[in-house]
Please model this.
Amino acid sequence: MKCRLIRMPARYRRVFPAGSSAVAVFLFLLAGCSFLEPAREPAAPSVFDSGLALMAGGDFAGAELAFRRAASRCESGADGRRALLFLSFLALDPRNPTAQPDSAALMAARFLNLPGNTRQETLEAEALYITALDYGADPELRVNPENPGFAVRFGDCDQPFPPRDVRPLPTLDNPTSGLLKSLDEERGTLAQENQGLRYTVRQLRRASDSLQAGVDSLEAELARIRQIIRLPDTSVTRPPDTAGARRPDTAVAKRPEIGLTRSPDAMLSRILGTDTARPPRSP
Model:
């Protein structure tokens, strides 16, 4: 930071006339002011700010590494606390190719277990945790206190960490993921039933084709039989087993009609042997 140019008041100009040694000393001190206070360089961005810039640019993998680095050190302070929340954001962002609802739920659970959360921070972390459950996160997942992998607090790093009870996590009834899972199972069942029905239809079609072939064969045989009946009996149309045999003469001699020359009584008497009209034989 450069010093401002100090103008000598008019009343001192009379005391130190131009060209005097006092004016030379004054100017020397004024020129050396810039060396006493050098210009400060802009501070480097923090790890958390670097993660924000990477996230804004679409580099989700780089942003996750930066946020994990900030959240793993107690000395990160407020940046470390916010890094946990943004790790949960990253794991829920559909633009992130490595997004995982389970990871989002764990990051939110880690934040809820931090000491000294404000009401606003608690509500934000609970909303993230519930959203992760709705996206399909396992509600039975819990943070491993033996190997957390992240800082358990961001402040008072030199003091021993007092034992604390694990904060109960919020629950979600009938999450969307559960409904989607039920729909997927029902869709799978319907797909199996549809496949079974398709197989049954194919079987019925094959049976129908077989029956139709039988009907066609019977109709052809019936047509052949009808043709044989309608045509005259020749050596061509005669059945093979009778083609060389001679048919007997179908002309039947007409029998002469026998008329009744006697009365019924006479015929009865003749049958009984009491015919009186005929003379008895001589011995």
Summary: Residues 39 and 190 are 74 Å apart (CA to CA). The chain has a mean pLDDT of 76. The chain has ten helices and no strands. Residues 47-178 form one domain.
